[in-house]
């Protein structure tokens, strides 16, 4: 500090200002704040401040340190050994040339005076001490025939400072130099200070949405001075307020320290400037019923989210809802998210579920898919649609369009098969199709025949053949099921199911060696044919005789 | 006188016994003749039934619906029954004449059976309206009394027929 004071006291003031500005800028860019930088020189301490403590004293004009031998009731500063100067001592003191001065600041003082040297040197001038805007002492320091300078407290007794607030002090020389070795203060005796710092009248922590604006206010009692630190800096008034605006998101801690000679008080308040919450809802814009999809939402910078509409009852910072087979309709998904500062963000997505297209093709009112008609046939094919914007036909309906329509077929011969296809599309491009096939068939018919027109009773026992039946089924709609009815002479009727377009019943196939020969008399058989469409046909009957020729004796 | 009467009684007693023996032997011979005739007739009837039954030509029926008799089969079946029966009684010297009317409408055979037989109808000119088998049988019979009279050539003659009913 000694070298710094010497450096600051030399000439080339402009060059020094540039260097000082460079250091200041470097400190600023490095984020370092010197809390006391706002008051320079610093407030005087309680007690004695020697002239070499340059942080408290500012030189103005031609001022320099000199080694001065003096004899008085003082003692050297501790930095110079602290020896008593009653018998004389040499001390480095501050010499203020005429027209120059030294000055500083103090606050909360009770008394104030300085130590200046009376001297027999005729170069000594008048000292003028000013404080709090007034001259508190002025005297010519020359004393003729004084062998060695001697320092005295001026004024004596010390000047009672009329205010507890901030004051400036100065010592100036006129008509010669003035030697100064110390200033002496006595702080007021008061209770320890208190300070209360609030943000927007709250002790915080306060959550605000960014960019934030808020107001810091602080009040103190018994404070001699206050200084700011952390997110702000510099000396502050003992009571005051400061507005902040446009503050970006982040956490800010404001600390104020108020001091007086009895101690210090610290208060802090924290402001959380929060980023605005965001929320994004994702849901498909449009679908065709039955629609199955998942609507989701994600958020950031939020502490809670609440759903509404289709998300009603849902919460969480993110989530989803699976929709299954939704019918046609309009579905809104809304989520509102809130951050810690209470700022909200909301997002809504709408999903429109279009009804699936429907088309129905009929042949003479029948849906098919297969329709059989006896030929030659005349019939009408019609189609109707719903929820469709366009329909196009193919196969037998090729070239047909329109949301509904018909086609008339006349005298379609037997053996013909037609297919009618209509495809309809809704606004989303979803398609539905219906088709129907028409078969023009020959009438259902069939035959039945017996292999033997006559048979012997229980023929297999005689080594003779039993009956066998053959038959066919045709026309109608394959496949065929034929029930063979065999009626015995006694009236007993037995059924034999057969399938296919040709069938045969033999004693072996029905596991009856005497099939059709178990009774004497006339047997009858016929078939009842049923096709796949349910049509039925009864064949003509076939009969055969079963005879027996007994032997009898003749007299 | 008493002696004459005794001698006379003995003669009469002896003659009476002879008469009794002759009468008894005659009755035995009559019975034997009757039994032989019945047995022979039963054999002939069994043979005719076998020939008609086992000789039915079913294949013919399957062709046109009319039942016929296979002459060879019918005859063989009838002969077989007769041979078996004769063998069981160790009878030799019997005479068999089997005839078959195979057609559905039967027919007639003149001069058959060759000799009139007591239990056959239409003897000597056999006819039938249906397929039939006829069996004529001559079986020799052993006599008890007539053999003493040197009449040992006595036989029984029977005829039986069986037909297939329509």
Describe the protein in words.
The complex is a heterodimer of chains A (555) and B (166). Chain A is mainly beta and 555 residues long. Chain A folds into 6 domains: 7-32; 33-187, Sandwich (Jelly Rolls); 194-274, Immunoglobulins (Immunoglobulin-like), CATH 2.60.40.10; 279-344, no CATH class; 358-441, Immunoglobulin-like; 445-547, Immunoglobulin-like (Sandwich). Chain A is built from 2 helices and 43 strands. In chain A, the strands form 10 sheets. In chain A, strands 1, 3, 4, 6, 9 and 11 form a 6-stranded antiparallel beta sheet that branches. In chain A, strands 35, 37, 38, 40, 41 and 42 form a 6-stranded mixed beta sheet that branches. In chain A, a hairpin with a 5-residue loop joins β40 (521-530) and β41 (536-538). Chain B has 166 residues and is an alpha+beta fold. Chain B has one domain (2-163). Chain B contains 3 helices and 7 strands. In chain B, strands 3-6-7 form a 3-stranded antiparallel beta sheet, covered by helices on one side. In chain B, strands 1-2 form a two-stranded antiparallel sheet. The A-B interface holds A 452-454, 456, 462-465, 545, 547, 549-555 and B 45, 48-49, 52-53, 56, 58, 61-62, 65, 67, 119-121, 128, 132, 160-166. β43 (551-554) of chain A pairs antiparallel with β7 of chain B, so a sheet runs across the interface.
Q: What are the defining features of this structure?
A:
heterodimer, A: 555 residues, mainly beta, Jelly Rolls, Immunoglobulin-like, 6 domains, 6-stranded antiparallel β-sheet, 43 strands, B: 166 residues, alpha+beta, 3-stranded antiparallel β-sheet, 48% helix, 23% strand
Strand content of chain A: over 45%
The N- and C-terminal alpha carbons of chain A lie at a distance of: 176 Å
At the first level of CATH, what is the class of the largest domain in chain A?
Mainly Beta
Mean of residue pLDDT values of chain A = 89
Write a short abstract of this structure.
The complex is a heterodimer of chains A (about 550) and B (about 170). Chain A is mainly β and about 550 residues long.
């Amino acid at each position: 500090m000694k070298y710094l004071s010497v450096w600051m006291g030399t000439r080339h003031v402009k060059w020094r200002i540039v260097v000082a500005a460079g250091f200041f800028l470097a400190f600023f860019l490095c984020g370092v704040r010197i809390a006391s930088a706002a008051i320079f020189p610093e407030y005087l301490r309680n007690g004695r401040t020697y002239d070499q403590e340059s942080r408290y004293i500012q030189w103005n004009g031609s001022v320099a340190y000199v080694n001065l031998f003096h004899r008085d009731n003082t003692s050297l500063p501790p930095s110079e050994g602290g020896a008593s100067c009653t018998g004389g001592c040499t001390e480095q003191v501050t010499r203020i040339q005429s027209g120059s001065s030294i000055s500083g600041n103090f606050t909360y003082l009770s008394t104030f005076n300085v130590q200046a040297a009376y001297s027999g040197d005729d170069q000594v001038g008048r000292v003028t001490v000013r404080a709090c805007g007034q001259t508190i002492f002025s005297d010519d320091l020359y004393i003729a025939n004084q062998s060695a300078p001697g320092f005295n407290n001026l004024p004596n007794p010390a000047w009672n400072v009329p205010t507890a607030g901030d004051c400036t002090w100065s010592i100036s020389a006129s008509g010669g130099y003035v030697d100064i070795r110390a200033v002496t203060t006595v702080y007021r005796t008061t209770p320890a200070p208190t300070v209360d710092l609030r943000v927007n009248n709250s002790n915080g922590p306060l959550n605000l949405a960014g960019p934030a604006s808020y107001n810091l206010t602080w009040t103190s009692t018994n404070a001699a001075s206050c200084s700011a630190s952390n997110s702000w800096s510099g000396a502050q008034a003992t009571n005051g307020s400061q507005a902040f605006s446009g503050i970006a998101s982040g956490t800010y801690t404001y600390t104020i320290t108020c001091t007086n000679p009895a101690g210090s008080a610290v208060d802090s308040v924290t402001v959380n400037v929060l980023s605005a919450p965001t929320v994004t809802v994702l849901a498909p814009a449009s679908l065709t019923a039955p629609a199955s999809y998942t609507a989701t939402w994600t958020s950031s910078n939020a502490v809670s989210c609440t759903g509404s509409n289709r998300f009603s009852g849902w919460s969480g910072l993110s989530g989803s809802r699976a929709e299954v087979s939704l019918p046609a309709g309009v579905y809104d998904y809304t989520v509102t998210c809130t951050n810690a500062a209470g700022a909200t963000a909301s997002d809504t997505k709408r999903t429109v579920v279009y009804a699936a297209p429907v088309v129905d093709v009929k042949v003479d009112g029948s849906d098919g898919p297969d329709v059989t008609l006896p030929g030659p046939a005349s019939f009408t094919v019609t189609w109707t649609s719903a929820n469709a914007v366009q329909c196009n036909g193919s196969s037998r309906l090729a070239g047909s369009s329109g949301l509904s329509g018909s086609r008339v077929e006349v005298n379609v011969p037997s053996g013909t098969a037609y297919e009618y296809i209509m495809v309809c599309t809704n606004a989303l491009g979803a398609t539905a199709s219906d088709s129907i096939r028409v078969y023009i068939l020959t009438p259902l018919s069939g035959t039945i025949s017996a292999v033997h027109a006559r048979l012997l009773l229980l023929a297999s026992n005689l080594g003779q053949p039993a009956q066998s039946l053959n038959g066919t089924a045709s026309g109608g709609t394959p496949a065929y099921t034929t029930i063979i009815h065999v009626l015995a002479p006694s009236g007993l009727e037995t059924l034999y199911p057969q399938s296919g377009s040709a069938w045969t019943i033999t004693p072996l196939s029905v596991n009856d060696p005497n099939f059709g020969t178990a009774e004497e008399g006339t047997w009858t058989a016929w078939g009842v044919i049923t096709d796949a469409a349910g049509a039925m046909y009864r064949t003509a009957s076939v009969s055969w005789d079963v005879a027996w020729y007994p032997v009898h004796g003749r007299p | 006188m008493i002696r004459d009467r005794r001698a006379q009684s003995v003669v009469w007693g002896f003659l009476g016994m002879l008469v009794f023996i002759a009468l008894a032997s005659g009755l035995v011979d009559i019975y034997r003749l009757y039994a032989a005739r019945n047995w022979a007739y039963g054999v002939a009837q069994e043979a005719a039934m076998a020939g008609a039954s086992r000789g039915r030509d079913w294949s013919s029926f399957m062709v046109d619906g009319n039942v016929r008799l296979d002459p060879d089969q019918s005859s063989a079946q009838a002969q077989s029954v007769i041979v078996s029966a004769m063998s069981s009684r160790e009878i030799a010297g019997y005479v068999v004449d089997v005839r078959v009317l195979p057609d559905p409408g039967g027919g007639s055979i003149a001069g058959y059976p060759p000799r009139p037989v007591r239990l056959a109808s239409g003897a000597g000119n056999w006819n039938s309206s249906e397929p039939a088998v006829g069996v004529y049988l001559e079986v020799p019979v052993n006599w008890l009394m007539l053999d003493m009279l040197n009449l040992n050539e006595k036989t029984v003659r029977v005829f039986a027929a069986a037909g297939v009913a329509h």
